[in-house]
Design goal:
Length: 264
C-alpha cells in the first residue's frame, strides 16, 4: 500500500487513516445532499478558475452540495491551491495522498463523500449540464447509476479524432475482454451512494482503470444503470500523452480482467 501523507493536520478531519483532509468543520453537522468528487493532478493552471466557474454554474440549481478535490502526487502548486480553495469556500474539501493514482484518489474521494448522491467529475470538464440531468434521473428513481457517455448516439466529442478513436478502441477491448455492455466507462458519472458503496469497495485495480472496474462491477452486480450522451469540451489537453498512456492502460486492463474474471 502506498504511503499516505496527512498534509494539514491542523484543519484535518478524516475518516480514512492517513488521508489529509482540509475543509470546513462548519458543515460537519449537516451532510450535503450531493457530493461532487473531482480527482486532480498537476492542475494548477485551471484548478482555481474551474472551481469558481463550477460554483457559479451550480448556484442557480440551489443544491446542498460539497466538492471533494482528490489529489495525489502533484509536483506543481495544486495542493496549495486546493487547500486555499477549501479554506475560502465552505463546501470545498481537499484530500491529498501519496503517489499519482487516479483510481485511488477517486476511491478515497467517494469513500469520504457524505452526500446521498455522488457525482464523479473531472477538473477539465466540470459539466454542470450533465450534473443537472444526471441528478434529475436519480431523483426519478429510474436508475441508481448514470453514466455520461461520449460515445453514445447524440454525444459530441470535441476532443481530437485520435482520442475519440482511442476511446472507442478501449471500450471495444472492454466488451471483448470483460463483456462490457455499455459504450463508455470513463468520465462523468452520478450515483446513489448507498446503492454503489459496496461496488466501490470491491474495486481492486485503481490507477487508470478504476472507472472501468467500477462500471463493469456495477453492471455485473445488477445495478440499474442509464447512459446519457454528453458533450465533451476539455478546458485543456490531458497532461499525459496518449501514446505514453497506452502501455500502462493495457497492463491495468490485464490486471482488471484477472480481477474480474478470475477473482470475481
Ligand atoms: N488524483 C489524481 N487525479 C488525476 C490523475 N491523473 C489524472 N487525474 C485527474 O483526472 C481527470 C482527468 O484527467 P485528464 O488528464 O483530463 O485525462 P482524460 O480523462 O483522459 O481526459 C482530471 O481532473 C485530472 O486532474 C492522478 O494520477 N491522480
Ligand atoms: Mg480530460
Amino acid at each position: 500500500m502506498d504511503t499516505l501523507e496527512a498534509r494539514s493536520p491542523s484543519h484535518g478531519v478524516s475518516s480514512l487513516p492517513g488521508v489529509g483532509y482540509v475543509g470546513s468543520l462548519a458543515m460537519a453537522s449537516t451532510d450535503p445532499r450531493i457530493s461532487i468528487v473531482i480527482p486532480i493532478y498537476n492542475e494548477e493552471a485551471i484548478l482555481h478558475s474551474a472551481v469558481v466557474d463550477l460554483r457559479e454554474r451550480l448556484k442557480p440549481l440551489r443544491w446542498s452540495y460539497e466538492i471533494i478535490l482528490a489529489e495525489n502526487g502533484s509536483k506543481d502548486g495544486t495542493v496549495a491551491l486546493a487547500q486555499e480553495l477549501s479554506q475560502k469556500y465552505p463546501e470545498v474539501k481537499s484530500i491529498s495522498m501519496g503517489e499519482p493514482n487516479y483510481g485511488k484518489a477517486m476511491k478515497q474521494g467517494i469513500l469520504l463523500a457524505r452526500g446521498e448522491l455522488v457525482i464523479c467529475d473531472e477538473i477539465d470538464l466540470c459539466d454542470a449540464d450533465f450534473h443537472r440531468r444526471a441528478i434529475d434521473i436519480l431523483d426519478t428513481g429510474e436508475a441508481d447509476l448514470v453514466i455520461g457517455s461520449k460515445l453514445l448516439a447524440g454525444a459530441e466529442d470535441d476532443r481530437p479524432m485520435l482520442r475519440h478513436v482511442a476511446s472507442q478502441a478501449y471500450s471495444g477491448l472492454l466488451k471483448v475482454m470483460l463483456g462490457f455492455r455499455g459504450t463508455d466507462t470513463h468520465g462523468l458519472k452520478a450515483f446513489r451512494r448507498s446503492a454503489l458503496l459496496d461496488t466501490v469497495r470491491a474495486c481492486l485495480v485503481e490507477k487508470d482503470v478504476f472507472a472501468s472496474e467500477f462500471v463493469i462491477r456495477a453492471d455485473r452486480g445488477g445495478i440499474r444503470t442509464k447512459e446519457i450522451p454528453v458533450r465533451v469540451m476539455e478546458k485543456r489537453p490531458p497532461s499525459i500523452n496518449l501514446f505514453k498512456r497506452v502501455p500502462n492502460v493495457l497492463k491495468s486492463l490485464i490486471k482488471l480482467t484477472i480481477a474480474i474474471r478470475i477473482r470475481g
